[in-house]
Design goal:
alpha/beta, seven-stranded mixed β-sheet, 9 strands, about 35% helix
């Protein structure tokens, strides 16, 4: 089991197995890695399923208003990533990674949005990567109990078919949305 002791994502371990089993993804993108728990849980889930997607963990590893400054997080995460052969940790901005996606015609099956938690930045991240999401792909929004993330999740799911989204009411909240259908 993955547990850096610094992440709120571990409560979603069983769900990570379920969503990976459901989607059988070829590409998983995790925006906001921190200590890597969510990224590594996706890898474990894929390997349990016997599938081998490319898993990209994207972060500047600088921290933000909500997380504070990162100290040795990048070094820790890189060291841990060697245990997870499907994971590619990239120390860069989300915008720079979106350029990589465009240049390489990346089609994302599972997108996890967990960068900054302000409404404006969460919306920017979602809109930046939505064009790369395949039909039937899924977007996860971590921390839907935080005002900015909750506002965006409610906004983009308003009026949508109830089969296309749901929200876990756990400690931090997790929104699940299929913006292009199932």
């Amino acid at each position: 089991m993955v547990n850096s002791g610094h992440s709120a994502w571990n409560e979603n371990e069983e769900f990570s197995k379920k969503i990976v089993s459901e989607l059988h993804p070829n590409v998983i993108v995790d925006l906001g890695v921190h200590y890597g728990d969510s990224t590594f849980l996706f890898c474990e889930a894929a390997m349990l399923e016997g599938i081998y997607p490319m898993i990209f963990g994207i972060d500047t590893f600088e921290g933000d208003y909500y997380t504070g400054r990162y100290n040795d997080v990048y070094e820790y995460t890189i060291k841990e990533s060697y245990k997870y052969p499907l994971v590619h940790i990239r120390k860069e901005t989300f915008r720079k990674f979106s350029e990589f996606c465009k240049e390489n015609s990346i089609s994302i099956d599972l997108l996890h949005v967990d960068g900054s938690h302000s409404y404006e930045e969460t919306k920017e991240n979602y809109e930046l990567f939505l064009p790369f999401l395949r039909e039937g792909g899924c977007v996860l929004f971590h921390d839907t109990k935080m005002e900015g993330v909750k506002k965006l999740f409610d906004e983009i799911t308003e009026g949508k078919d109830k089969d296309l989204f749901y929200e876990f009411d756990n400690n931090y909240g997790l929104g699940v949305f299929y913006p292009k259908g199932k």
